[in-house]
């Protein structure tokens, strides 16, 4: 209630003293008015409509703008968008009627009057404040956050010391391209269980409805502070701001019930979320979707809910609608007593319309359900950066639980129906894992982007699908690149196929690796094979070449048979002698000595043999090997000269038959044929 003297109140109650309306118009940012209207003859009509909460039920945190309508003579259209201060003078005393921003000025048809419409300073919050929000240095207290908003909008604020959660830290919790200043202010008021409202002087007030079921004064002590307790829940018919006596009433309608006291407060993120609860009653006030509370822990939300509870519980009132003489010193949020003898009630002015110039008329009202059913959700369209929520659903069709942490970008859900049990964990837009169980199947799946792994268990099969499979156990290991290691035995009834296989020991019925095949019956290597009962014989497919280790179809001893000419190489022949045979040499066996050379190890020649030289071979004999371009050799060790060597010469110079006698002296010229000393043929 606006503070005025009892004398001024009585002037309005009697309504017999002349009144004068005064309207001053200022351009925004200027202190001096550019237009003042104080002539009553220029005012034709006036109405002021204001409310704390105009909904069916009281919505704590509401910030509703008051509206003024004037019909005034001879005013210019240029007053649009200016600021108007309206007041009334009565009995030499002045009572402010508010400060407003003129939104429209319309000229009446065929008249000198203009209809003026204005909204109080709450309308200044109807701007986009996202730039202000994004420029803040978080965290900061709720009081500092709200004060910064008011400074940005350009309004004055009265900061009381009774707001319970004004020291709550505010963090940056949302990302949005647009953010309404009114929406932010509503969120601030909700957290304190208050209403935002501009008083008659254009100052933002944070209004708390006074409780009326806590204390009741003795009638002979009021307004003394010597009070005694009243039983909880009983209507207090003594504490009020103003009593409107029957002679002031023009009409009055009362509901036959009282709106019960709020006895529980719930804070949640959205419908279905458990959130935080304070109080154990049944008439619950729910605060839903307040972006300032995103990301708060359960303990923090419980503390905030307790503070709100103290500001809104114990407010019992009877819904009503009254028309009476105009009492402009009353304000929305005031508790009034309607004096109807035995039917007197105490209620709140939630909505109020005042009309008139000389004879003022007031309409007051308050509405509400006996038990609340409508919940509060005014911030549903803001994108969250922080937020925690828990949802429980229990019905005959489903039992489920879901937890969300927006800041961590995770969500988990567990759901049970008659046909299925499922659980899901998501890192939103990144990864997801799920488990689904029915009577026929169990499915597990993990996905990240376009990559996923899945395991399906059914009665007749197990299906594993994955980009990579990794096994790490004591006896079996498999890495992500497909490399496996085993210990123990591997028994397979199928074919093992691979590009490369390495093992110290392979034991199996059959091994088939390209050109190499092993079974119980045969070993195959390219075009060669050996049967199980061949006793070490290895032959080509056409049997033109046979290699025998010892004792086979070629007789005893190790042998090689080449079908062309039916030649058999047996024991006692050197590879050099095989070369001599291929190149037309003879086959007289003799014990050979190897001749090694550092320069041409593969020189296809035979070295000296015993019997080639009657004398001892010199320790060092320089030779020239001209067979197949082997080049020149240095020393050849202790051996006699041979064909092609620059050593002993054959008698006669040409080998047409037997070479001449044995070399007995220095080696001479090179034999022109292949034979050498001691050779025949």
What features would you describe in this structure?
With 681 residues, this protein is mainly beta. It contains six helices and 46 strands. The strands form ten sheets. Strands 2-1-5-6-7-4-3-23-24-20-16 form an eleven-stranded antiparallel beta sheet. An eight-stranded antiparallel beta sheet has the order 26-27-28-29-30-31-32-33, with no helix packed on it. Strands 37-38-39-40-41-42-43-44 form an eight-stranded antiparallel beta sheet, with no helix packed on it. Helix 3 runs antiparallel to helix 4 (181-192). It is elongated.
Characteristic key phrases:
681 residues, mainly beta, 11-stranded antiparallel β-sheet, 8-stranded antiparallel β-sheet, 6 helices, elongated
Strand order of the largest sheet: 2-1-5-6-7-4-3-23-24-20-16
Structural class, judged by helices and strands?
A: mainly beta
- Portion of residues in beta strands equals 25-35%
End-to-end C-alpha gap? 145 Å
C-alpha geometry:
elongated
Q: Helicity range of the residues?
A: under 10%
Say what oligomer this is: single chain
Report low-confidence residues grouped into runs of 5 or more: 214-237, 376-385, 586-681
Instruction: Sketch the major β-sheet.
Output: 11 strands, antiparallel
DSSP, total strands: 46
Mean pLDDT: 77
CA-based gyration radius: 55 Å
Separate helix tally: 6
